[in-house]
Amino acid sequence: MDNINEGRKHVFSFEVFPPKQSTSFEKIKEVTDSLIELEPDFISVTYGAGGSIKDNRTVEVCKLIANSGKSKPVAHLTCIGSKKEEIDEILYSLNKIGVKDILALRGDKNPNVTQKGDFEHASDLIYYIKSKMGDKFNVLAACYPAGHNESVSQKQDIINLKKKVDAGVSGLITQMFFDNEEFYRFRDLVEVSGIEVPIEAGIMPITNTRQIEKVISLSGASMPARLTRLIAKYGRNDDAMFDAGTSFATSQIVELLSSDINGIHLYTMNNPAVAKRIHSVVKGLLKF
User: What integer best gives the mean pLDDT of the chain?
Assistant: First the structure.
C-alpha cells in the first residue's frame, strides 16, 4: 500500500479496537470476520494498552486480519512515553507477521504515566520508523479537520502535519468530523500548504447517546444542528438512534463521495451492524 489510493477510485476502510486482556479474544474475531466479509481495503487496529508486545493485543488482531488473506491490517502505533527499544520490539513483531502498514500516532497524554519516552511528536516516530526500517513499512498518519485540541491554531496544526508528511507519510486519515464543510475547508488549507498525499475522511456514526460526550472531547469536532436535532429527537431510544445515526453518517458519506474525496475510514466501534448498514448503501458509489 504505497499510498491509500493506489489503484482505487475511493478507499473504504474500517477501524476496530483490540479487546482488553480480561476480555475473550473470540469476540474480536467475530467482529473482524464480519467486517472482512465486506471486503474493505484495510482494517486499522487501534493501539492496545501497554507498550510491551506481551501486553498489547494490537499485534494479535493484526495477525488475525492478515491471516484471513482477504483484507490488510493497519497497525496503530503510539509513541508517547515509549523508549526506542519498546518501539523496536513492536516493529519487529509486526514485520514478522507480515504487517506492512502502520498508522503512526503520538497518543494521548496520560497523567499516570511518568516514564519520559524518546519521542515527543508523531513526526519523531515516523522519522524513526522510516530510518530504522526503511521500506519495510508504509506509514500513514492522522490529521484533524477541526485542528488538534492541543494546537494553538489550525495554521500551526497544518505546519505540524507537513512535518509528518515530510518525515515519510504516504497518506492521511482524519479524526472524526460531522460537518462536511469543516472537512472541505481543511482540505483546501492542506492543499495550499503543499501537502499532496491522499486524505481519507474519518466518519463515526453516532448510534447511541453514550458516545457523544466522549466523541466530542476526543475529536473537538463540532455538532451540526441537523445532528443535534436527531440526537434530541431519538436519543432516548436505542433502536431509533441506531437508525438515525447510521442514516446521518450514510448521507455524510454519500455527499463526500460526490466531492472527489480520496476515501472513507469508518470508525466502527467494533459494531459490524453499523458497517454493514452503511456499506449496503454506499458500496455501488465507491466505483465512481
Answer: 91
pLDDT for the residue 7: 64
Cα distance between residue 279 and residue 261, in whole Å: 17
Contact call for residues 28 and 19 (beta carbons, < 8 A)? yes
262 in Cβ contact with 4 (< 8 Å):
yes
- For the record, the C-alpha cell of 114 comes out as 511518568
Residue among 6, 15, 60, 196 flagged as catalytic: 15
In angstroms, the CA 236 to CA 131 distance is 51
User: How many secondary structure helices (H) and strands (E) does the chain include?
Assistant: 10, 8
Check whether 48 has a pLDDT greater than 90: no
Report residue 138 CA to chain centroid gap.
Answer: 15
Residue appearing with cell numbers 489550525: 154
Q: Where are the alpha helices (DSSP H) in 119-166?
A: 122-133, 154-166
Residue 12's φ and ψ, nearest 5 degrees, are -130, 120
Decide if 150 is catalytic. no
- Residue 274 C-beta-side C-alpha neighbours within 13 Å: 24
Is the pLDDT at 52 greater than 60? The verdict is no
C-alpha dist (Å) from residue 164 to 34, 123, 124, 159: 33, 5, 8, 9
